[in-house]
Design brief:
Elements lengths: L9 H9 L12 H8 L13 H4 L9 E2 L13 H10 L3 E3 L12 H10 L3 E3 L5 E3 L17 H9 L7 E11 L5 E13 L17 E11 L7 E7 L7 E6 L4 E4 L31 E13 L16 E2 L7 E2 L1 E15 L8 E9 L4 E9 L4 E11 L1 E2 L2 E2 L1 E2 L2 E2 L1 E10 L4 E7 L2 E2 L3 E2 L1 E2 L4 H5 L2 H8 L1
Parallel strand pairs: 2-14
Antiparallel strand pairs: 1-2, 3-4, 5-6, 5-23, 5-26, 6-7, 7-8, 8-9, 9-10, 11-14, 12-13, 14-15, 15-16, 16-17, 17-22, 18-19, 20-21, 22-23, 24-25
Protein name: DUF1329 domain-containing protein
Organism: Denitromonas halophila
């Protein structure tokens, strides 16, 4: 007879006991010191939080596919909109094992910086992240043992993609309520962090230490939007709005845009706003009233989501009225997720009243974001998928290490039932390919002159 050391409700009681407490992640022992010693999370959680079989008492097993027929067994592990998608729209989710080796949940250099710089970050009197000696942040998660909502949020704000720079070649499909594709776009999303740089001699991009990042979005197809580009310049001071300029081919010039209008579709038919990016698309302190409202296990798409079997890394699709609404997705049981709420205090005319961000305690990356309208009704879901880019004997490399990055996003406006699903693909129209830590990216993509040149 197998005698369980912890009964089934042990974890639930433990999370309830931590509610409102200024404590870090981990149930049986603090998580991050364990990671720093061994890189394995196993001893931090009881079996029921590391095994979908144990959590569901055998109702769901690794390798099973969640459908409308069995979704009730994991309803409490899904976001409300993901549950609705499975129950009502034919979405399917494959269950894979829980990742226990933390090195499979980070870019290697970013994890090394997180370990090395742990304990060096503070929030100053304004709420900005600095080092203890008052300098800009030096790299990795500033608060790997986040104890408050704003600390958790800082981990996803300070470095979106967790590389020094990245060029994401993105293919987007926009699906209407009838399940048919109304629009399809190819675009490049380009990021360059100017502080907190990792794996290099200096954590700062010389001459840009007062900034946090530059970010460009460039549409390459179809022809009616080809050349449209927007450039955001983020300041280190998270109370400041970014500078936003754009190139519109029809006008053949770069013009400034109101920087606080961050809740509008980038192009016709898409449900994605600038505000949505990484669930932290606005400067952190233009949002406020951060609250860590809950800790609990959840299902999340953080592994086995790369598709090298397709020549352009595009995943199979399914579900919805025409079988085109959802990308195939693998999810695993995340033993501890921090649920953080925030309100848009800097945007009096925003259609969003609050957002609820779900953050994996193991690597402090967001695994989902729900926004609510001003009436408090569910508005949109922005749900990413991530993966280590390896499958069988196939690998994609970033420098000397296997690539870790996002693979796709479902952006679902549930009030209009419009879905934008987009994926990081190998390449897009215009000959642009995905990559990370690329020399010359700033000069090629992230100046007003660059977006004019690219658009023309």
């Amino acid at each position: 007879m197998h005698i369980r050391k912890y009964d089934f409700d042990f974890a639930r009681r433990a999370f309830l006991g931590k509610a409102g407490a200024l404590v870090g992640a981990g149930v049986l022992t603090p998580l991050w010191p364990l990671i720093a010693r061994a890189g394995d999370i196993t001893k931090a959680y009881p079996e029921e939080l590391l095994s979908i079989e144990a959590y569901t008492k055998g109702k769901i097993n690794t390798g099973d596919v969640i459908t409308a027929e069995n979704v009730e067994a994991v309803k409490d592990l899904l976001t409300p909109i993901a549950y609705q998608e499975v129950k009502e729209m034919g979405r399917r989710i494959k269950i894979v094992p829980t990742t226990r080796d933390i090195t499979r949940l980070f870019p290697a250099d970013y994890l090394e910086a997180t370990l090395r710089n742990n304990g060096q970050a503070i929030l100053d009197k304004d709420g900005n992240v600095l080092t203890k000696d008052g300098k800009p942040w030096i790299g990795g998660n500033p608060f790997p043992e986040a104890k408050t909502g704003i600390e958790a949020f800082a981990n996803i704000t300070m470095s979106w993609g967790r590389h020094n720079n990245a060029l994401y070649a993105i293919r987007d499909w926009d699906i209407g309520p009838d399940g048919e594709i109304g629009y399809q776009y190819d675009f490049a999303w380009v990021e360059e962090n100017t502080i907190g740089r990792v794996g290099v001699e200096s954590p700062y991009l010389a001459g840009h230490e007062d900034k946090l990042r530059y970010q460009t979005v460039l549409f390459t197809g179809p022809n009616d939007v080809k050349g449209t580009a927007y450039l955001s310049t983020w300041y280190g001071d998270q109370r400041k709005f970014p500078e936003l300029v754009g190139y519109i081919p029809a006008f053949k010039r770069v013009r400034k845009f109101p920087t606080n209008q961050r809740f509008e579709p980038l192009v016709a038919g898409i449900t994605v706003y600038l505000s949505d990016a990484w669930a932290a698309g606005d400067p952190m302190l233009t949002w406020g009233n951060f609250k860590l409202v809950e800790r609990r296990p959840m299902l999340a798409a953080v592994s086995e989501n790369w598709h090298p079997e397709h020549p352009n890394w595009e995943p199979p699709v399914h579900g919805g009225a025409a079988g085109k609404t959802f990308s195939d997705t693998c999810m695993e049981l995340c033993p501890e997720v921090l649920i953080v709420e925030a309100e848009p205090i800097g945007y009096p005319r925003a259609p969003v009243g609050k957002k609820r961000v779900f953050i994996d305690a193991r690597n402090m990356i967001y695994i989902g974001c729900h926004t609510y309208d001003r009436r408090g009704e569910l508005f949109k879901s922005f749900e990413p998928a991530y993966s280590l880019y390896e499958k069988g004997d196939q690998r994609d490399m970033t420098g000397n290490h296997t690539t870790w990055t996002w693979t796709g996003v479902h952006s679902h406006d549930v009030q209009t039932n419009r879905m934008s699903r987009f994926n990081q693909v190998k390449s897009i129209v215009g000959g642009i390919s995905s990559g990370r830590n690329i020399d010359g990216l700033y000069e090629k993509y992230m100046t007003p002159q660059a977006i004019r040149r690219l658009g023309a």
